[in-house]
Amino acid sequence: MAQDQSTDTIKNSLDDFPAEAFTIMVFCDACGRRCSLDRAKVPKHVTIQDLTKVLRCSSCGSREASIRIIYTGAAGFHHNSAP
Ligand SMILES: [Zn+2]
Question: How many domains does the chain have?
Fold first, then answer.
């Protein structure tokens, strides 16, 4: 699978990717289905890496999911540079 973003070393929680600035896409490796993650269904403490373990494709039922985090931009400037 081609990867245009290096998401393989991410160990962050969903809270590190606020919904207003990031869309988390879920790709099913089995059937190719893709959709944006429904955050309401995911406990906040779940890390991005754990997501692939708890997700199940709603189309084919496969657990072979890939996660891709897409920066969609924020209304303000919310970089984590503040101390
Ligand atoms: Zn699927």
Answer: 1
Query: Quick one: how many helices (H) and strands (E) in the chain?
Result: 1, 3
CA–centroid distance, residue 64 to ligand 1 (Å)? 8
Asked, for residue 82, whether it belongs to a domain, the answer is: no
Range of the domain at 24: 19-71
Q: What is the pTM of this model?
A: 0.68
All residues at 6 or more sequence positions from 39 whose CB lies less than 8 Å from its CB, including other chains = 14, 19, 24
Within a domain: 79? no
Residue-wise pLDDT for 6-63, tens only, equals 555 557 888 888 888 999 999 999 999 999 998 888 887 888 888 888 889 999 999 9
User: What CATH number is attached to the domain comprising 24?
Assistant: 2.20.28
Q: Which residues surround ligand 1, an ion (CB under 5 A)?
A: 28, 30-31, 33, 57, 59-60, 62
